Amino acid sequence: MIKKVFDSYDILLSEYQCNQLNRYYELLVEWNEKINLTAITDYEEVIWKHFLDSALLLKCSVFQQTKRNRILDLGTGAGFPGLVLAILCPECEFYLVDSLKKRIDFLSIVCEELQIENVQLFHGRAEECGRRKDFRNQFDFVISRAVAQLPVLMEYCVPFVKKDGYFVSYKGKKYNDEIKLSENACQKLNIQLEKVEEFRIEDKEERYLLFFKNLSMTDEKYPRKSGKPKKNPL
Ligand code: SAH
Questions:
Q1: Does the beta carbon of 97 lie inside 6 Å of ligand 1?
Q2: 82-52-112 Cα angle (round to 5)
Q3: Is the pTM of this model over 0.85?
Q4: Percent of the chain as helix, strand, coil, to the nearest 5
Q5: Nearest-angstrom CA–CA distance, 194 and 168
Q6: Index of the ligand 1 atom closest to the CA of residue 156
Q7: Could you tell me whether strands 161-171 and 205-214 are parallel, antiparallel, or unpaired per DSSP bridges?
Q8: Which phi-psi region, left, alpha or beta, contains residue 146 (left: φ > 0; alpha: ψ -120 to 50)?
Q9: Is the pLDDT of residue 203 over 90?
Q10: Is residue 125 in contact with ligand 1, taking CB distance under 6 Å?
Q11: What is the dihedral of CA 121, 218, 210, 77, to 10 degrees?
């Protein structure tokens, strides 16, 4: 099933990767009984809405054409999109950040079980991690799905992005409204919308990946203190 779905998007999976994703599904459903990880548990639905959706970054020309050694997923939750991409791109180093310890603990179990070696897990808030010297303006791509509205998300994510690297946001069909709201944030953080990639999941849901290029090192003012970006968005 997984292979067929991914094949239909021309994303090639080895048997090993297929087995890893299947085992990931089993662990997700098993641990979801104890800790809240996902509302979606049906096998086919997880494949489409979590696994395939996460993998869409691989189809994007900006991603294919840019150096991509270090990638950070902000607010990864149960590992979407970051852990799926780590399975699919063993040559890249992934950093998965989430403020909920239980979710990071779950990811640690999955990484151990699946023998994933290109992932580092961090429990913490964007507003704090983004100030760490070893994280600041260090990543080729910072990706995020379903974490916050664009102006908030930009302040969370952009401080991690290298100069000339990209912040990539997975959004739904109302992405244009959010772009309109983020003019000020783009200016303050000095990023520019470079490309929007459009997809359809299972011939139904629309999915957009927005690529913002980081034009400089981030102003030291950002991110502001924990809670501030959400309470008072740029
Ligand atoms: N990206 C996943 C999870 C989305 S839920 C997916 O698409 O399925 C949003 C996640 O973001 C939660 O796990 C929450 O703990 C995390 N989060 C929210 N605000 C955050 C912040 N300021 N810093 C770090 N993680 C945050």
A1: yes
A2: 40
A3: yes
A4: 40, 25, 35
A5: 10
A6: 22
A7: antiparallel
A8: left
A9: no
A10: yes
A11: 20
Range 205-209 average pLDDT: 97
Indicate the top mutation candidate among 48, 147, 222 to test ligand 1's pocket, ranked by most ligand atoms within 8 A of CB.
Answer: 147
Question: Considering only CA atoms, which residue is closest to atom 11 of ligand 1?
Answer: 75
Ligand 1 mean position to 75 CA, how many Å? 3
Q: For 49-59, what is the mean pLDDT?
A: 98
Ligand 1 and 85: CB distance under 6 A: no
Please give the structure tokens belonging to residue 135: 């994280």
In the DSSP assignment, the letter for residue 49 is I
Mean pLDDT over 109-119 rounds to 98
Q: Report the length, in residues, of the chain.
A: 234
Supply 208's token pair: 């957009």
Element (DSSP H or E) covering residue 61:
helix 61-65
Contact 95, 139 (CB under 8 A): yes
